[in-house]
What does this fold into?
Amino acid sequence: MSGDRASSPAGATSSSVAWRSAEPDDAAAVARAIDDWWPGKHMVHAVCPQLFEHLGDTCVLAEREGDLIGFLVGFVSQRMPGTGYVHYAGVRPDCRGLGIGRELYRRFSTAVAGRGCTRLYAETGAWNVESIAFHRRVGFTLQPGDAIVDGLPVHHDSAGVGFDFVVMVKPLVGEGP
Ligand SMILES: CC(C)(COP(=O)(O)OP(=O)(O)OC[C@H]1O[C@@H](n2cnc3c(N)ncnc32)[C@H](O)[C@@H]1OP(=O)(O)O)[C@@H](O)C(=O)NCCC(=O)NCCS
It folds into this structure.
């Protein structure tokens, strides 16, 4: 994936939004964003430049006038055949509700479908009910966990001690370059 300003739906994809894959130097901006934009727990430990260096070609960044307004860090899973793994995705708070999150996932889907993937696999904090609602809205379903907490199938400590996550999957149908 290279950079582009292709038109797409709604405000998300207006010509003022530039889309591109990630470079190692982008890690610092994503680390700042993940601290500022996320609800609740700090997630900065999830950002490391090596991810961007070795897997950045499937990551998607959205920028407006040179400022980062959205990102999806994801890659093809080596252990789950045919699976595109979404490590995390975020949209700057003042740019939410414009379709940018959906467009990040659409572009990632195209990138990993082009590498043979037939499904997406994503995780999010069990406390992050807005993220779970978003993922359901864009077609993910929740997978069984090791316990039900507040009605959600939770995987205890799956993202580190104290980080209980839910696992969500979505088939890729008709996606492709
Ligand atoms: C989750 C997040 C990425 C969504 O980004 P966004 O750009 O606001 O999402 P979109 O505008 O593309 O919304 C896509 C769809 O999801 C729905 N949606 C988005 N947020 C929602 C919410 N909190 N509750 C219910 N539905 C929601 C939208 O209504 C839209 O539906 P539609 O296209 O059918 O009208 C953004 O809220 C965010 O960055 N949150 C903080 C970081 C985070 O939690 N990331 C996910 C965990 S890795």
